[in-house]
Design a protein that fits this description.
Strand order of the largest sheet: 2-4-5-7-6
Order of helices and strands: HHHHHHHEHHEEHEEHHEE
Structural class: alpha+beta
Strand content: 5-15%
Shape: elongated
Number of domains: 3
Number of strands: 7
Largest sheet: 5 strands, mixed
Number of helices: 12
Length: 401
């Protein structure tokens, strides 16, 4: 069952990564100056063609009227249709049309331009129809590439980029919903286990009041451990709620990073000693940074907690503190543990993400620690990343001075 779920997640993750790569490539293409030069050229050529055509029509009509050739046709038309003699038809043309030639030519020119303008608008509005069809595809979510005319290539790229972005967000929403549902299921299962133990041992203590003191002390100790685990899981539910509704606000001050990390190692000593691990800090004692001490302590706490949970027993956790350049500081957490697959490395900073190996009663968390760490580092205008190979896991945090 877990293997099927894992394959499903990996498949969704792969699809998401493909979409991200397409999105990035589209963004890079969009960084180039958007140009509708082809459309401009086509509009210009068609406009010039319309003007030349209009000029030719007007010039032809003008010459025909000016030299009287059209007049002969009109006189002949009046004779044949209304059965007038030549002189009456000529007089009608002379006094009814010839003297109003300027008005007639003006009307003809206006009608010619209106007709050509209408044809030009009909041609141009087809681009809007193409865009409308493309938007309709986006609304319907067909998942197909939007294809426009060649001269509308910049708009085509933007619409396809929008389609890819919407698809990526939809996929990420599905992944987040799936992880959230799995989280609820995992935590419900994890809560039931210690709760059952607590009820079982308390029932034994109640049913056997004369139980030997040594055995009673053992059962009380186990019950307390299970109750503490139950409290931890309940706190994780509250953590999820807080993470979803709160907005992290930074209160910055000058921080002695070396001292902060050293103090944290001392606090982790009981947890480290349980597995025979050792944390060693390497770096300059004078390294400082400007940031929120409480929030950054939470970042390092979450990373170190993760390192302890997934380190091999009796291994060393190395913490390196160094100045990469005058304006930044790098903190590395290196531990020996099972190599994390590359496809999972890209997801471990996502909210509610838990690797299958984390689903144990001792290490299974809500999958929020690293996600919160990333958000805090990002608010500090820094970067956080993870590397894993040859049974070594390295978390790197880079912060501006």
């Amino acid at each position: 069952m877990n293997m099927k779920r894992g394959r499903k997640k990996e498949g969704l993750s792969t699809s998401r990564d493909v979409l991200k790569e397409q999105d990035v490539s589209s963004v890079k293409a969009g960084k180039k100056k958007s140009s509708y030069s082809k459309l401009k050229l086509k509009v210009f050529l068609r406009t010039m063609g319309m003007i030349v055509l209009a000029f030719c029509i007007i010039f032809t009509l003008y010459r025909r009227f000016w030299f009287g050739r059209v007049g002969d046709w009109i006189v002949l038309f009046l004779q044949n249709v209304f059965h007038l003699d030549y002189y009456d038809a000529r007089n009608i043309y002379q006094y009814g049309m010839r003297e109003n030639m300027v008005l007639i030519i003006f009307i003809a020119v206006a009608l010619c331009f209106l007709l050509l303008f209408w044809v030009s608008l009909s041609w141009f509005t087809r681009y809007f129809n193409e865009i409308d069809e493309g938007l309709e595809k986006l609304i319907q979510g067909e998942g197909k590439d939007i294809i426009l005319s060649q001269e509308m290539e910049p708009m085509e790229k933007k619409l396809n980029l929008l389609r890819q972005t919407l698809e990526r967000r939809e996929l990420e929403a599905k992944l987040a919903e799936e992880r959230k549902n799995n989280l609820v299921m995992y935590l419900a299962h994890d809560i039931r286990t210690p709760l059952t133990s607590v009820i079982g041992y308390l029932s034994l203590l109640e049913e056997v009041p004369d139980m030997p003191q040594e055995q009673k002390a053992k059962y009380v100790h186990i019950t307390l451990e299970k109750a503490n685990r139950l409290e931890q899981l309940i706190n994780e539910f509250f953590e999820i709620t807080r993470y979803n509704i709160q907005q992290i606000v930074l209160e910055k001050e000058k921080i002695d990073l070396y001292y902060m990390l050293l103090q944290m190692i001392e606090e982790f000593y009981p947890l480290l000693s349980q597995k025979g691990n050792q944390a060693v800090l390497h770096g300059d004692e004078n390294v400082t940074v400007y940031g929120d001490p409480v929030k950054l302590a939470r970042v390092f706490n979450n990373i170190l907690k993760n390192a302890v949970a997934y380190s091999y027993k009796n291994s060393k956790i190395n913490i390196f503190l160094e100045e990469a350049e005058p304006s930044s500081v790098i903190i590395k957490f290196q531990n020996q543990g099972k190599t994390i697959p590359q496809e999972k490395l890209s997801s471990i900073f996502e909210k509610f993400y838990r690797m299958d190996e984390a689903r144990t009663s001792n290490t299974g968390g809500a999958g929020l620690g690293l996600a919160i760490a990333k958000e805090i580092v990002t608010l500090h205008e820094g970067e956080i990343s993870a590397q894993s190979q040859n049974e070594q896991v390295i978390f790197v945090v880079e912060l501006p001075r």
